[in-house]
Amino acid sequence: MTFINPKTDYAFKRIFGSSESKDILISFLNAMIYDGNPTIEDLEIINPNLPPRVEGLKDTYLDVKAQLADGTLVIIEMQVLNVESFGKRVLYNAAKTYAFQLQKGEGYRMLKPVIALTLTDFEMFQNSDKLISRFVYKEESTNIRYTDNNIELVFVELPKFTKQVDQLETIADKWIYFMKYARTITDVPEIMDSVPEIHKAFDIANQVNLTLDELADIERREMFIYDQQGAIIKAVQEALQQEKLAIARQLLDRLDDETIAQTTGLSIQDVRNLRSK
Description:
Elements: H1 9-16, H2 22-33, E1 43-46, E2 49-50, E3 60-61, E4 64-68, E5 73-79, H3 86-99, E6 114-120, E7 132-135, E8 151-157, H4 171-181, H5 196-205, H6 212-251, H7 257-264, H8 268-276
Parallel strand pairs: 5-6, 6-8
Antiparallel strand pairs: 1-4, 2-3, 4-5, 7-8
Helix pairs in contact: 2-5, 6-7, 7-8
């Protein structure tokens, strides 16, 4: 079997946000947000788009949006590319979802909590080794939670997940393994059979169930992501190279070529080319 990549927007929405995905999404959210406890018993998958209700305000397009039985709103995003100001975008989407609940004439007491669950295919918090991070409003020195703490940000950083299939223990482990490796495996691991919702997610992700047009669309989206990742890597490499060259120029009058090369990581030929100029 070949599975579509659940990290692409089309596949993610198909697996977690379609009309047949209710039980899958409940299991996934319980695993990511509530440590695998069956806290969520029911939810409604709703339109993930947040059109502007104020003239000039930016449109917002989410991957999946749901309302839990207690009214809590959960917005879910899968982000592959580490684009500029992404962290601010997450907060903007959460704040917009929270503020736009109210209709004209409704009081603030009608506001329900918002949980923004974000999965990233890159490390957002490089100074932390936590796989799942939660952020809420707290008093800075005493750590007291804000009384009406109605916005929570939950991040799952896929690169920090390093377990192999035989090391999976919790339902969160199994869901994260699905998200990270479904595209690269050819059979549903036996350990997943204990979670019917994950098995169902694999069934939805099975390419045999897609039309040729759907497969072509997914391939185009994946190629776009790969191209963008390549462009980002190239830009970073070029910036590092320019930084090395700038340091080397400052050392030309002080050190020999071999020492400059060892210090900066440039090749001796690069240093010689700089000196010749």
